[in-house]
Design brief:
There is one protein chain. The protein is α+β, with helices and mostly antiparallel strands. The chain is built from twelve helices and twelve strands. It has a five-stranded antiparallel sheet, with helices on both faces. Strands 7-8-6-11-12 form a five-stranded mixed sheet, with helices on both faces. A two-stranded antiparallel ribbon has the order 9-10. A hairpin with a 2-residue loop joins strand 9 and strand 10. The radius of gyration is 42 Å and the shape is rod-shaped.
């Protein structure tokens, strides 16, 4: 039954009514106990009984407010404090904002009030945990979206997931051409061997999560990590049911079930970021690659030449360029057609690419021209590489439409710092002039700028 909109007002009214009722009934109770009627029913005694009932009601209300009301007020203030934290803090409840002193309530009774306080404390702990998780996810997402390069993304993702899960090591591998490639590793012994690990290959094939627990009395002799693992966790990274990569986490103790149940949330963020990074990498690759030969195109290759030229200036190391031009290429196209010409271009690009050193840069410079950048190579080394390319191309043949087609190249060489210059374009110009000299003096030659 409600009289007003405030519980304690209702309680006060009811207690006063009860006190007055008891005061009115009490004189007749006294008569029943033997008190003379002339005493029990006098106005003074009657008034004293009613007044005593009212005083008792007031005392009860005061005690109720002090014992029950103070606790309800405390619960309300704690709720208001949590509300302020939620409204004003974008990061959720942190350890600094919500300590046991200012957020939780002491549970000092076993009644309904104690149950309420205990439920409130559990709610605060669960809420803080959820908000911390949301903060972790938000932080993780921000880190991932700030990286479009796969290597940087892999490092950041792995380090953050190791921190979140409490793992002591791990690795991150991506799927490329049906194989696994290690992109990041922490505390993993011989990470390159992970791509051949049976467990990872099984996860790659089935897209299923795997958890491998090692008994304490079983020693693992350098299979994966440099320490004694307790648990190995393998999580496929999927985007729309397509495998993008595999996350490996190694723990020195079993991973908490709650943590493992939350990991798929991070998996979703990671799969989206990894898909974006792969798309960016593919677009960058396509923008830099000549579609016919698979070599760098002129725009990207020249940019790399400028980078290597500046590096040579800073380090004082030599830099050479080779300008290759296919001899009689127009006549070859006219005689055999453009399909045959394309096959010759592909042949020259493959031979030149296989003849240069690791770290050298080969680009398709023009229609039938190729430019090769040789960091650290002086005129002598450049001449040896050029001769190797020239001879291999001269001795090669392609079969087209039942005919043997042979081709040769003319190569011009220019080197820095042998030629005094401050611009790589001058280096290209000199190599182009040397290549022209090779053509005008008989073709199928290597000419170095004198």
């Amino acid at each position: 039954m409600r009289i007003t909109k405030k519980v304690f007002y209702d309680l006060a009214i009811l207690m006063v009514f009860l006190g007055v009722s008891i005061g009115i009934v009490f004189p007749y109770f006294c008569i029943a106990l033997g008190v003379p009627r002339e005493i029990a029913l006098t106005p003074t005694f009657f008034t004293a009984c009613v007044a005593a009932g009212v005083v008792l009601a007031v005392l009860n209300i005061t005690l109720a407010r002090k014992t029950v009301g103070s606790r309800i007020t405390l619960l309300s203030s704690k709720m208001k404090h949590i509300e302020d934290i939620l409204v004003n803090s974008s990061a959720g409840i942190s350890a600094e904002e919500c300590t046991p002193d200012n957020c939780l309530i002491d549970v000092d009774s076993d009644d309904e009030l104690g149950e309420s306080a205990n439920s409130f404390n559990k709610l605060v702990v669960a809420l803080a945990d959820v908000l911390r998780l949301n903060s972790e996810i938000h932080h993780f997402s921000n880190i991932l979206t700030s990286h479009l390069e796969i290597d940087a993304l892999s490092d950041e993702a792995l380090n953050n997931l190791i921190r979140f899960t409490g793992a002591v090591g791990g690795a991150f591998l991506i799927e490329k051409g049906g194989e696994l490639v290690v992109k990041a590793a922490v505390a993993i012994k011989e990470p390159g061997q992970l791509a051949k690990n049976d467990r990872l290959l099984y996860a790659m094939k089935t897209h299923e999560r795997q958890t491998i627990r090692f008994p304490d009395d079983v020693r693992i002799n350098g299979v994966i990590v440099d320490f004694q693992p307790n648990e190995l966790f393998i999580e496929p990274i999927l985007y729309k049911n397509t495998l993008l990569g595999i996350l490996v986490l190694v723990g020195s103790a079993p991973f908490p079930e709650q943590m493992l149940s939350r990991l798929p949330i991070f998996n979703q963020e990671l799969s989206l970021a990894l898909r974006n990074a792969i798309t960016h990498d593919q677009m960058t690759h396509f923008a830099a690659i000549d579609p016919l030969t698979g070599l760098y195109n002129r725009r990207f290759g020249i940019r790399r030449l400028h980078e290597e030229f500046q590096r040579s200036i800073r380090s004082g190391t030599p830099l050479s360029v080779l300008m290759l031009d296919i001899d009689h290429f127009k006549a070859l196209n006219d005689s055999y057609g453009h399909m045959a010409g394309d096959r010759v271009l592909i042949l020259v690009s493959k031979i030149a690419g296989s003849s240069i050193r690791e770290g050298d840069i080969l680009m398709r410079y023009g229609g039938e021209e190729f430019l090769c950048v040789l960091p650290g190579a002086g005129p002598g080394d450049a001449s040896k590489i050029a001769e190797r390319i020239r001879i291999m191309i001269m001795n090669s043949r392609i079969q087209y439409d039942g005919q043997d087609i042979q081709t040769t190249v003319s190569i011009g060489i220019a080197s820095y710092p042998r030629e005094n210059m401050d611009n790589p374009d001058q280096l290209i110009k000199l190599a182009d002039e040397a290549m022209y000299d090779a053509k005008t003096s008989g073709r199928n030659k290597v000419v170095t700028v004198s």
